[in-house]
Amino acid sequence: MFRHEKKLQNVTEIREALAQVQIWRRDKSHEVFCPICDAPGFEIIDRSARPYTEWYAVKCEKCGLEDAIAVPLCPQMGGGN
């Protein structure tokens, strides 16, 4: 399955990719699958700039998907009450 547009194209694909990221974060030795073609070997690279954002580069050799997912994190509020 090859796509002309090699990016995550809708909310469903992004959610599935983030689910694979969650699996990968819990156990990096666990195999994760492409959210587009369901092939094993989905590559995830953590390029986060914590505490500001979580940012993951994702790639699938089989279908050609290559994209990045950014998840903004809430800034810490100083002071409190």
Describe this entry's structure for a reader.
With 81 residues, this protein is α+β, with helices and mostly antiparallel strands. It has one domain. Helix content is 20%, strand content 22%. The protein has 1 helix and 3 strands, in the order αβββ. It has one helix at 11-26; strands at 43-46, 53-59, 66-72. A 3-stranded antiparallel β-sheet has the order 1-2-3, with helices on one face. A hairpin with a 6-residue loop joins β1 (43-46) and β2. It is globular and about 45 Å long. The chain starts with 10 loop residues before the first helix and ends in a 9-residue tail after the last strand.
Please, how many helices?
Answer: 1
Low-confidence stretches: none
How many domains, in number, for the residues? 1
**SS strand fraction:** 15-25%
**Rg on CA atoms, Å:** 15 Å
Q: From the helix content, strand content and strand pairing, which structural class follows?
A: alpha+beta
The profile of the biggest β sheet is: 3 strands, antiparallel
| SSE ordering | HEEE
Mean pLDDT: 88
Shape: globular
What's the N-to-C terminus distance?
Answer: 55 Å
How many extended strands? 3
Order of adjacent strands in the largest pleated sheet: 1-2-3
Helix content: 10-25%
Topology diagram in text:
Blueprint: H1 11-26, E1 43-46, E2 53-59, E3 66-72
Antiparallel strand pairs: 1-2, 2-3
Quick tags:
3-stranded antiparallel sheet; 81 residues; globular
Summarize the structure.
The chain is α+β, with helices and mostly antiparallel strands. It has one helix at 11-26; strands at 43-46, 53-59, 66-72.
